[in-house]
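Input chain follows. Return structure tokens only.
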Amino acid sequence: MEKRKGRPKKDESDKFTTQCIIKDPLMEPFYIQKDSSNFTVIEVATSTRGFKGKKTAPKEVERTVGHYTSFKNALNCVAKHKFYENEGEFESIESYINSWEKVKTGIETLLNTTKI
């Protein structure tokens, strides 16, 4: 018998897996996918663009936002994307600080509903 090179085949009888998906209505349209080494934040969006930018029937697409080593960092990423609305230009320091206060409140709400 010839010895095979490369990675060994996956044992199909092994039912143990380190992958899981974490979804919560508070995090929508985001969810977190966990594997053996990190947490991946994924955003679900509806696309109406097809080939060459032409309009098509709406379909759901997933976009990877980032990879994180801890669950808390992944949740912080979700909270920042969910609650931070960049206006591009602020009229004053006070309006910028008020914007960040909304982000902080959103992050705290999300993190406080989940005991870490």
